[in-house]
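Let's do one together. I've listed all components of the complex below, 838 residues spread over two lines.
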Amino acid sequence: MASTPKIIVVGGGLAGLSAVIKIAEMGGAVDLFSIVPVKRSHSVCAQGGINAAKNLKGEGDSTWQHFDDTIYGGDFLANQPPVKAMCEAAPGIIDLLDRMGVPFNRTPEGLLDFRRFGGTLYNRTAFAGATTGQQLLYALDEQVRRYEAEGKVKKFEAWEFLSAVIDSSGTCRGICAMDLRSMEVRTFSADAIIIATGGVGAIFGKSTNSVVCTGSAQSALYQQGCYYANGEFIQVHPTSIPGEDKLRLMSESARGEGGRVWVPKKPGDNRDPLSIPASERWYFLEEWYPKYGNLVPRDVATRAIFKVVYEHGLGIDGKPMVYLDLTHIDPAVLDRKLEGILEIYEKFVGDDPRKVPMKIFPGMHYTMGGMWVDFDQATNVPGIFAAGECEYSYHGANRLGANSLVSCIFGGFLAGPNAVRYARCLEGASSNGHFEAEQKRQEAINVGLMSSNGVENPFRLWRELGELMTKDCTVIRHNKNLVETDAKLVELLERFQLINLSDRSQWANTSIVFTRQLYNMLQLSRVIAQGALLRDESRGAHYKPEFPERDDKNFLKTTKASFAPDADAPKFEFEPVDVSLIPPRPRKY
Amino acid sequence: MAEKTVQFKIKRQETPAAEPHWEEFDLAWHPGMNVISSLMEIARNPVTKDGKTTTPITYDSNCLEEICGSCAMLINGRARMACSALVDNLEKPIKLEPFSKFPVIRDLAVDRSVLFENLKAVKAWVPIDGTYDLGSGPRMTMEQQEEAYPLSNCISCCCCMEVCPQFNEETGFVGAATIAQVNLFNTHPTGAALKRERLAALMGDGGIQECGYAQNCVEICPKELPLTRSISEVGGDVMKQAVGDLFRR
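Okay, and this is what the predicted structure of the assembly comes out as:
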């Protein structure tokens, strides 16, 4: 191999940028691919904070306690050694971000301030107002820009990853990508590639995710032979703001700072919420979970809200909404600690949450499952690594709030150096023919889509997909519905063959790009639906009323899906979970 | 027509070299609709007001929460983010145009990479020694954090540059966003190590002296950055350094 390892990183969010920085620091050369300018990546949407057991509040917090909370919060589905390593690395990651200039909130003594988040009893979450993800991403973006100025990193922004280039021995040798302006399809060679392409929110139509979070890259790689693990574990965030174009997140930090969730006790009570006396309000989370109160983990809070709305019929005005109330908290404190999210509510809803309780409802938020990786962030295909939300390893069956940012950075920090080490030992390929073959295969897909003369509009097909997946593959899952969902997905894949692009131009054509993503979303949806069908138990975010208990005997296992090209469908196997450090115990908050 | 509708007038341009033209759309009204949800509706049914089939509109977007900075455009002539532009609050017909001071890619999407190049030129980063474990960062008071945080909220949308009368090819002015970042990094205890270089980058043609104090930037900024304050503070520092440099020769 060449003296300077060449690594391609796909995705410029926290995980991708973390990997880039480590590779550049080790003397490697990086090509960084991103659909959007990396500073506009979805990581900016993370609001509340980043977890690290720095124990600066005299509470006796420890990295072991963080590890235990994370494993317990994830209902024991995560392999334990990588989670332990992440929790141990977290305090150092916070220090590094602090050195990079992240404007974390401070205590009067000038130290980092920490607040409480869901699923823990400790103040463990460092934060920069309520825009922590944005501030963290910017800090990494700035360091990458520094390496870019030094010529160690080359950015390919406005490029879409299409597929990996895999040689005859099954080793990845580079990628095939498309220029989103000229529509040119090209291959790029590398010693290793790192996929850091985030979550799959778009599969559910409306979610808290950004537009680019389609899971298209993960799906393409799954169809090329990468395992996809625990696809059925989808986090529905208890507090989002329903919108016409998306569901906007209302951070868990609102509850971390004292926000209370309630509904009027009387069905259909349409009085001004502030005029409803405390005795006529039902603070159902506090009543049901006295120890954790409003800060139970997300899956628990979401199911509680569903119960109150759909079983007790107590949604506000009979609609699927409950109150998230901050009005009892000093507005000056709210402004200092939560301003960013209060602004979002004000701008998009029009009410001031300092004065009026917010109306919120659960919304699809996070992808716990993802590309299968080993403890070195390597997938089963040599030369393909993955980090961040697009891989499955750190959150088990449910992610705790403020653990996503730390898992992204930790995963990137592992993937980068491991890819470099892999590259240094890599033997050269026997031929280069696979580059041309892959490019031809991708160009043929484009030609096929451009000339398809059917009746289906890709954006309308997408809406159907989103409604289907949200209805049957989120909070409550019934086997009968999951069977029907998969049948409907097959039907949507058939209808996809009748696609008709309303734009056939060869310049900045967003329709063809989206249509390619849609196909990949459809294929990955089957992994989610069938994975949910196979798992006859309830664990973390996966809840089946027919099987309400966790079943460790049969399902303390990682679901691994692989693509069977002949059947054009996923096939499944199960892998035991490494529970070598904390014996599984019942999860009762 | 019984159904309530919303009228849109959208400036279209197929390629960077093509002549722009206007298309009009009549969309069914929904509660809570914004400009982005309207553009999504057009993609689902790309038909103009006159029943002519057309192409979906090309535009930049990502987070739809006014935090990624992607979807900036001119809405009824005003530079703003499309995701937070609620249809009910806008005068009809709603007129959508691309930014006028950046090269059009297609329709409402423009090339704003100049800002990222400017950030490179002023070294808008903290020069850390490395990512290995070197302990915690510098202590900072709550007041220092409260000064830095608003500046660090810049979403690189370029609204401030679009509305600045001095931001044009003739002056080559860097614009307010870049100057605010210089202020942010110059006031950071470690970032200050590159203060001299940053100020030097803002001297001369296209530098901070091009600012004409129109104050449009601070009025338009969707994140309410203290832009004019940054310009005046950095301007003072540039002046001091320039004078000092004279005597040091």
